[in-house]
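Pipeline run #58 for the internal structure catalog. This entry was flagged by the ingest filter as a single-chain record with no existing model, so it goes straight to prediction. Upstream metadata was stripped on purpose; only the residue string is passed forward. Reviewer on rotation: M.T. Logging verbosity set to normal.
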Amino acid sequence: MLDCMSIEISDKITFITPSLYAKQCLESVGIKCKDVIPHGIDLHPKYDEQFSSRLTQLVPSPVKAQPSNRMLCVSGNVQRKALDKLLVAYKTIQKLVKDSFLVLHSGLGDTNIVALQTALDLKRFWFTNMWGLLDKYKLASLFKFCDFYVQPSMVEGFGLTYLEAFAFDKPVIGVNCPATNEVVKDGYTGILLPVTRIEDIVWHQRHALRLHHFDIDSLIDAMLVMTDEQARLKFQINVKKEKRRWDLNEIYSRFLKYLD
Protein backbone atom coordinates (compact mmCIF):
# COMPACT_ATOMS: atom_id res chain seq x y z
CA MET A 1 0.00 0.00 0.00
CA LEU A 2 3.08 2.25 -0.25
CA ASP A 3 3.67 4.70 -3.11
CA CYS A 4 6.97 4.95 -4.97
CA MET A 5 8.24 7.85 -2.86
CA SER A 6 7.59 5.94 0.36
CA ILE A 7 9.49 2.95 -0.99
CA GLU A 8 12.40 5.21 -1.96
CA ILE A 9 12.50 6.78 1.51
CA SER A 10 12.32 3.35 3.12
CA ASP A 11 15.71 2.49 1.58
CA LYS A 12 17.28 5.05 3.94
CA ILE A 13 15.63 3.57 7.04
CA THR A 14 16.73 0.56 9.08
CA PHE A 15 13.73 -1.69 9.68
CA ILE A 16 13.66 -4.16 12.57
CA THR A 17 10.60 -6.31 13.25
CA PRO A 18 9.44 -8.28 16.30
CA SER A 19 8.55 -11.44 14.32
CA LEU A 20 9.38 -13.36 11.18
CA TYR A 21 5.78 -12.84 10.10
CA ALA A 22 6.12 -9.05 10.34
CA LYS A 23 9.38 -9.31 8.36
CA GLN A 24 7.62 -11.27 5.63
CA CYS A 25 4.84 -8.68 5.49
CA LEU A 26 7.34 -5.84 5.02
CA GLU A 27 9.35 -7.68 2.41
CA SER A 28 6.18 -8.54 0.47
CA VAL A 29 5.75 -4.81 -0.26
CA GLY A 30 9.38 -4.23 -1.10
CA ILE A 31 10.72 -3.03 2.26
CA LYS A 32 14.04 -4.55 3.25
CA CYS A 33 14.26 -5.74 6.84
CA LYS A 34 17.60 -5.80 8.66
CA ASP A 35 16.77 -7.96 11.64
CA VAL A 36 14.13 -9.71 13.73
CA ILE A 37 14.28 -8.76 17.42
CA PRO A 38 11.25 -9.93 19.39
CA HIS A 39 9.69 -8.28 22.41
CA GLY A 40 11.21 -9.19 25.75
CA ILE A 41 9.77 -9.61 29.22
CA ASP A 42 10.83 -8.77 32.74
CA LEU A 43 11.51 -12.11 34.41
CA HIS A 44 10.69 -10.54 37.78
CA PRO A 45 7.53 -8.56 37.05
CA LYS A 46 5.95 -6.23 39.59
CA TYR A 47 2.24 -5.93 40.23
CA ASP A 48 -0.17 -3.84 42.30
CA GLU A 49 -0.56 -5.79 45.54
CA GLN A 50 -3.51 -3.72 46.74
CA PHE A 51 -5.35 -4.20 43.45
CA SER A 52 -4.50 -7.91 43.52
CA SER A 53 -6.13 -8.18 46.94
CA ARG A 54 -9.27 -6.49 45.57
CA LEU A 55 -9.43 -9.02 42.75
CA THR A 56 -9.43 -11.88 45.25
CA GLN A 57 -12.35 -10.26 47.06
CA LEU A 58 -14.36 -9.62 43.90
CA VAL A 59 -14.03 -13.08 42.37
CA PRO A 60 -15.40 -15.99 44.42
CA SER A 61 -12.94 -18.55 45.80
CA PRO A 62 -13.08 -22.21 44.72
CA VAL A 63 -15.67 -24.38 46.40
CA LYS A 64 -14.18 -26.60 49.13
CA ALA A 65 -11.00 -28.29 47.86
CA GLN A 66 -11.64 -27.72 44.16
CA PRO A 67 -8.75 -26.07 42.28
CA SER A 68 -9.45 -22.64 40.85
CA ASN A 69 -9.93 -22.37 37.11
CA ARG A 70 -9.58 -18.65 36.54
CA MET A 71 -8.86 -17.75 32.95
CA LEU A 72 -7.90 -14.35 31.58
CA CYS A 73 -8.13 -12.68 28.20
CA VAL A 74 -6.59 -9.25 27.59
CA SER A 75 -7.60 -8.09 24.15
CA GLY A 76 -8.63 -5.31 21.85
CA ASN A 77 -12.22 -5.70 20.70
CA VAL A 78 -11.81 -6.16 16.95
CA GLN A 79 -12.89 -8.91 14.56
CA ARG A 80 -9.54 -10.70 14.43
CA LYS A 81 -9.51 -11.21 18.23
CA ALA A 82 -12.54 -13.58 18.04
CA LEU A 83 -13.98 -12.52 21.41
CA ASP A 84 -17.43 -13.70 20.31
CA LYS A 85 -16.06 -17.23 19.84
CA LEU A 86 -14.36 -17.05 23.23
CA LEU A 87 -17.61 -16.20 25.04
CA VAL A 88 -19.57 -18.88 23.19
CA ALA A 89 -16.92 -21.47 24.11
CA TYR A 90 -16.95 -20.33 27.72
CA LYS A 91 -20.71 -20.91 27.84
CA THR A 92 -19.95 -24.64 27.61
CA ILE A 93 -17.03 -24.46 30.05
CA GLN A 94 -19.23 -22.71 32.59
CA LYS A 95 -21.60 -25.67 32.52
CA LEU A 96 -18.93 -28.38 32.64
CA VAL A 97 -16.33 -26.99 35.02
CA LYS A 98 -17.15 -25.85 38.52
CA ASP A 99 -15.14 -22.90 39.77
CA SER A 100 -14.38 -21.73 36.25
CA PHE A 101 -14.23 -17.95 35.98
CA LEU A 102 -13.42 -15.85 32.90
CA VAL A 103 -11.98 -12.36 33.23
CA LEU A 104 -12.03 -10.31 30.04
CA HIS A 105 -10.08 -7.05 29.97
CA SER A 106 -11.19 -5.31 26.82
CA GLY A 107 -13.23 -2.34 25.66
CA LEU A 108 -16.08 -1.51 23.32
CA GLY A 109 -15.69 -2.51 19.70
CA ASP A 110 -16.80 -5.09 17.13
CA THR A 111 -18.38 -7.45 19.67
CA ASN A 112 -21.10 -6.21 22.01
CA ILE A 113 -19.71 -7.98 25.06
CA VAL A 114 -22.52 -7.01 27.44
CA ALA A 115 -25.28 -8.09 25.05
CA LEU A 116 -23.53 -11.39 24.32
CA GLN A 117 -22.95 -12.02 28.03
CA THR A 118 -26.67 -11.53 28.65
CA ALA A 119 -27.72 -13.70 25.71
CA LEU A 120 -25.42 -16.53 26.79
CA ASP A 121 -26.34 -16.11 30.46
CA LEU A 122 -22.71 -16.05 31.57
CA LYS A 123 -22.69 -16.09 35.37
CA ARG A 124 -19.02 -16.58 36.28
CA PHE A 125 -17.74 -13.88 33.98
CA TRP A 126 -16.23 -10.47 34.61
CA PHE A 127 -15.93 -7.76 31.96
CA THR A 128 -13.51 -5.16 33.31
CA ASN A 129 -14.35 -2.28 30.93
CA MET A 130 -15.81 -0.26 33.82
CA TRP A 131 -12.24 0.41 34.95
CA GLY A 132 -11.08 1.64 31.56
CA LEU A 133 -7.43 1.14 30.66
CA LEU A 134 -5.40 -0.21 33.55
CA ASP A 135 -1.85 0.85 34.31
CA LYS A 136 0.84 -1.77 33.81
CA TYR A 137 0.93 -2.79 37.47
CA LYS A 138 -2.83 -3.38 37.70
CA LEU A 139 -2.73 -5.21 34.37
CA ALA A 140 0.08 -7.38 35.72
CA SER A 141 -2.17 -8.17 38.69
CA LEU A 142 -4.69 -9.72 36.30
CA PHE A 143 -2.03 -12.03 34.88
CA LYS A 144 -0.92 -13.03 38.38
CA PHE A 145 -4.53 -13.64 39.42
CA CYS A 146 -5.43 -16.08 36.63
CA ASP A 147 -4.57 -19.77 36.31
CA PHE A 148 -4.11 -19.65 32.55
CA TYR A 149 -4.36 -17.20 29.68
CA VAL A 150 -6.54 -17.54 26.58
CA GLN A 151 -6.35 -15.31 23.51
CA PRO A 152 -7.95 -16.74 20.33
CA SER A 153 -6.72 -13.97 18.04
CA MET A 154 -6.72 -15.08 14.39
CA VAL A 155 -3.57 -13.13 13.47
CA GLU A 156 -0.92 -11.19 15.40
CA GLY A 157 2.07 -9.06 14.51
CA PHE A 158 3.79 -10.67 17.49
CA GLY A 159 1.57 -11.55 20.46
CA LEU A 160 3.02 -9.71 23.45
CA THR A 161 0.23 -10.70 25.84
CA TYR A 162 1.32 -14.34 25.59
CA LEU A 163 4.73 -13.32 26.92
CA GLU A 164 3.11 -11.24 29.65
CA ALA A 165 1.36 -14.44 30.76
CA PHE A 166 4.69 -16.31 30.61
CA ALA A 167 6.21 -13.70 32.93
CA PHE A 168 3.81 -14.97 35.63
CA ASP A 169 4.32 -18.65 34.70
CA LYS A 170 0.89 -18.98 33.11
CA PRO A 171 0.28 -21.40 30.22
CA VAL A 172 -1.66 -20.03 27.27
CA ILE A 173 -4.17 -20.92 24.61
CA GLY A 174 -3.80 -19.34 21.18
CA VAL A 175 -4.37 -20.04 17.50
CA ASN A 176 -1.78 -21.79 15.33
CA CYS A 177 -1.30 -18.70 13.18
CA PRO A 178 1.33 -16.03 12.59
CA ALA A 179 2.91 -14.79 14.77
CA THR A 180 1.36 -16.57 17.76
CA ASN A 181 3.08 -19.80 16.77
CA GLU A 182 6.44 -18.01 16.97
CA VAL A 183 5.83 -17.41 20.69
CA VAL A 184 3.79 -20.38 21.91
CA LYS A 185 5.04 -23.96 21.57
CA ASP A 186 2.06 -26.25 21.08
CA GLY A 187 1.85 -28.95 23.74
CA TYR A 188 4.77 -27.45 25.65
CA THR A 189 4.03 -23.91 26.85
CA GLY A 190 0.42 -23.92 25.75
CA ILE A 191 -2.13 -25.15 23.25
CA LEU A 192 -2.43 -23.87 19.68
CA LEU A 193 -5.84 -24.26 18.04
CA PRO A 194 -5.72 -25.83 14.55
CA VAL A 195 -6.65 -23.55 11.67
CA THR A 196 -9.69 -24.65 9.66
CA ARG A 197 -9.68 -22.00 6.94
CA ILE A 198 -7.93 -18.79 5.94
CA GLU A 199 -9.77 -15.61 4.96
CA ASP A 200 -8.24 -12.59 3.23
CA ILE A 201 -9.69 -9.25 4.30
CA VAL A 202 -9.54 -6.68 1.49
CA TRP A 203 -9.49 -2.92 2.13
CA HIS A 204 -9.54 -0.36 -0.70
CA GLN A 205 -9.01 -3.19 -3.21
CA ARG A 206 -5.81 -4.27 -1.49
CA HIS A 207 -5.06 -7.22 0.76
CA ALA A 208 -5.04 -5.89 4.32
CA LEU A 209 -5.29 -8.87 6.66
CA ARG A 210 -5.30 -12.65 6.63
CA LEU A 211 -7.50 -14.26 9.26
CA HIS A 212 -6.90 -17.83 10.42
CA HIS A 213 -10.22 -19.30 11.53
CA PHE A 214 -10.69 -22.15 14.03
CA ASP A 215 -13.55 -24.29 15.34
CA ILE A 216 -15.18 -23.33 18.63
CA ASP A 217 -15.09 -27.01 19.62
CA SER A 218 -11.28 -26.99 19.51
CA LEU A 219 -11.27 -23.93 21.77
CA ILE A 220 -13.59 -25.70 24.22
CA ASP A 221 -11.34 -28.78 24.21
CA ALA A 222 -8.25 -26.66 24.87
CA MET A 223 -9.94 -24.83 27.74
CA LEU A 224 -11.01 -28.15 29.25
CA VAL A 225 -7.41 -29.38 29.14
CA MET A 226 -6.25 -26.23 30.92
CA THR A 227 -8.82 -26.67 33.67
CA ASP A 228 -7.14 -29.99 34.56
CA GLU A 229 -4.80 -29.03 37.38
CA GLN A 230 -2.19 -31.71 36.64
CA ALA A 231 -2.04 -30.89 32.94
CA ARG A 232 -1.78 -27.21 33.75
CA LEU A 233 1.09 -27.85 36.15
CA LYS A 234 3.11 -29.55 33.40
CA PHE A 235 2.61 -26.55 31.13
CA GLN A 236 3.65 -24.20 33.94
CA ILE A 237 6.92 -26.08 34.48
CA ASN A 238 7.72 -25.70 30.79
CA VAL A 239 6.78 -22.01 30.79
CA LYS A 240 9.23 -21.36 33.63
CA LYS A 241 12.00 -22.87 31.49
CA GLU A 242 10.95 -21.27 28.22
CA LYS A 243 10.50 -17.72 29.47
CA ARG A 244 14.22 -17.34 30.14
CA ARG A 245 14.91 -16.98 26.43
CA TRP A 246 12.62 -13.93 26.35
CA ASP A 247 14.63 -12.03 28.98
CA LEU A 248 14.37 -8.36 27.95
CA ASN A 249 17.86 -7.58 29.24
CA GLU A 250 19.38 -9.95 26.71
CA ILE A 251 16.97 -9.31 23.84
CA TYR A 252 17.03 -5.51 23.87
CA SER A 253 20.83 -5.41 24.02
CA ARG A 254 20.67 -6.58 20.40
CA PHE A 255 19.41 -3.12 19.42
CA LEU A 256 22.67 -1.51 20.46
CA LYS A 257 24.55 -2.39 17.28
CA TYR A 258 22.01 -0.32 15.31
CA LEU A 259 22.43 2.78 17.46
CA ASP A 260 26.04 3.65 16.56
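catalog note: The first strand starts at residue 16 and ends at 17.
catalog note: The chain has a mean pLDDT of 92.
status: ready for reviewer M.T.
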